[in-house]
Amino acid sequence: MEVEVAQASDLRLDGSKVQARVNGRYVSIFNVKGELYCIDAICYHAGGPLTVGDIEDVDGKACVRCPWHNYIVTVQTGEKLYQKLVKTEEGKLVPGGWDSVGQRQRTHRVFERSGAVFVVVDEEGSFESDKYSSDEACGRRLVSSGGSFGNPKPNPFGARGAGGQGRGAFLGMKNLVSRVTSGHLFGADGKMPFKKPQQ
Question: Which of 11, 39, 43, 115 lies 20 to 30 Å from 100 when distance is taken between CA atoms?
Fold first, then answer.
């Protein structure tokens, strides 16, 4: 089911982002050169606040770098990228080209309609980011305590769009959405905590 997470004006600028909680899952929506992308906001590797960083170009791909372990993840496909090491003629190892280890971070469908931004959570298959995607302790590190929580606006046409054959608009009311366009992390700088927080 599609869930409204933001106004289009919140994501109008290139590089802007919105953190949201949809169907219990922490996600981030990015504007990259006018295109919207949505990925799980919590890093698949160790539950870090992956999407607090800015978008950076890595080998022509828009990526976020996790502040905990510097893992680089593409916002379009959720792939983890790494830079190969190559041996020179002198036998030294130097940075080579970029490669992917495959999709680790779940991506979701996002679109704009009538001045609003909607997310459709992808729940098919299994990805490594699933293990942390709804973790409350990880979410507290991602979303500031001042974030507003409320009910999203469900699709008035039901889950299947304007045909009205969906399960009904009111099912979306149980999904909480947190819209945070600015804020801070618990731990302030997003660095990995020394001790696992109490749940």
Answer: 11
